[in-house]
Hints:
The protein has five helices and no strands. By secondary structure, the chain is mainly alpha-helical. The protein folds into two domains: 18-56; 65-115, no CATH class. The two termini are 48 Å apart.
Amino acid sequence: MWGPGRSGNPGGRPKVSREWKDICRRMEPEAMSALRKALQTKGERVPAAALILAYSRGRPEVRATVRVIHSLADLTEQELLAIIGRGTPDAIEGDATELLADVATEGELPTITTD
Length: 115
């Protein structure tokens, strides 16, 4: 997409107008009062507390392990069979590699029977 050292957002984060910041600052006492009230209200308690903690302590770090699949060759035989929706390797004649070769040449999924 972008070359090395290039940003997908070269202008950076949009600036908030001074006027809007001033309006928000004037509303802070009312907003804090609403949050205090929400902390005492069933059903609003947790979202209010989460908002307060997110801004006072920072949001918790979220980590995820992501597996990138570039082609069908990156998938295991079981994953391929699950995608096809046909169960286990025992349910087909041949292996998934042959099955995929058929799909690639014929352009449609072969019929697979299960017992």
